[in-house]
Design a protein that fits this description.
Layout lengths: L7 E5 L4 H4 L7 H14 L3 E4 L11 H11 L4 E4 L2 E2 L5 H15 L3 E6 L5 H10 L6 H16 L21 E4 L4 H10 L2 E2 L6 H17 L8 E10 L2 H16 L3 H4 L4 E5 L1 H13 L4 E6 L4 H11 L6
Parallel strand pairs: 1-2, 1-10, 2-3, 3-5, 4-5, 5-6, 6-7, 7-8, 8-9, 8-10
């Protein structure tokens, strides 16, 4: 969905929520249906998160393969994939397959993962090096890009399938620490933070773009995005639903989660004003997560307010 101007909107598919809320089945077919609905409603992208047992949910690239086959226009992306939990060659093949299935609509959002014990445990399960996850992420990105090039395979044969996007899918980096801002500016097509406040987003955007300029890149060529969580309705009810969502998702109350993740609850007018703040600060794509069991009602309210947002 696009507002007047250049801002686009994406919907985060509730892969984790399907396991959190009853009937707790995590059925990925419902995610595909919602992605189709998002396309019909005019959203620009459908996103999906990633985790193993830390926050159980469907595997994101598998779901996006199904979404690719069921949709025609909408971009599909990971928000964000923990790439350093995967083998670089297999990840490159999986991403190339999804990119080919979608006709070049894949955005591979990647991140190192938060410094949390449950995420560390997931790395242990797959034999990953949690302490070196940031460095390994960059090596995996480098290796995947090499494999996506026409002559970039380590054998006489090319990686199959060939990406629909020349040079491989778009790569966005989730992260807002000093190293993440530098890496996003120097090496990625987009920057995708969780943006706990408008002020933090604006300050970090300046830093990221400065790194891009230092690297000889056009800062405007890097998409500035944000991953934001909302709930719209009666303020007290909306706040209670966000708090329940935070406790189920992260094991922490909303007041703690808000320090790390852009999260807001209130009336549609209040939520619209909050989202407008990120647009005014330079955000070009907003990926919106609906913090509620009642996704249908929240989606209706979101669709109603988005046309009023402006650049």
């Amino acid at each position: 969905m696009t507002s007047p101007g250049s801002v686009t909107f994406g919907l985060l598919l509730p892969s984790r929520e399907l396991a959190m809320y009853a009937p707790h089945d995590g059925d990925p077919r419902r995610l595909v249906d919602l992605a189709v609905q998002a396309e019909e409603l005019g959203f620009a992208a459908a996103w999906i998160g990633d985790s193993l047992l830390a926050k159980p949910r469907a595997e994101p690239l598998s779901v996006l393969a199904a979404v690719a086959a069921a949709t025609e226009r909408i971009d599909i992306g990971t928000a964000v994939l923990l790439a350093s939990m995967r083998n670089a060659t297999q990840l490159a093949q999986q991403a190339a397959t999804v990119d080919a299935l979608s006709g070049g609509r894949l955005i591979l959002g990647v991140g190192a993962g938060p410094p949390a014990p449950d995420v560390n445990a997931d790395f242990d399960l797959v034999g990953g090096d949690f302490d070196r996850r940031g460095t390994q992420l960059m090596q995996i990105v480098h290796d995947a890009r090499e494999l996506w090039q026409a002559d970039g395979t380590p054998t006489a044969q090319r990686l199959q399938p060939v990406c629909a996007t020349e040079g491989g899918p778009r790569l966005w980096l989730g992260g807002s620490g000093p190293r993440g801002l530098e890496r996003a500016g120097r090496h990625f097509d987009g920057w995708f933070p969780t943006a706990p406040s408008v002020d933090a987003f604006a300050e970090q955007l300046v830093t990221m773009r400065a790194h891009a300029a230092d690297a000889g890149r056009d800062p405007a060529s890097i998409t500035a995005a944000a991953y934001l969580t909302v709930n719209m309705g009666d303020p007290d009810t909306a706040a209670a639903e966000v708090d329940e969502h935070s406790k189920l998702y992260y094991g922490a109350p909303a007041e703690v989660v808000r320090r790390l993740l852009g999260t807001y609850s209130g009336t549609q007018t209040q939520v619209a004003a909050w989202l407008q703040g990120y647009i005014d600060a330079g955000c070009e794509h907003l990926s919106i997560r609906l913090a509620s069991l009642d996704v249908d009602t929240q989606l209706d309210r979101l669709v109603e307010l988005l046309p009023d947002l402006r650049t």
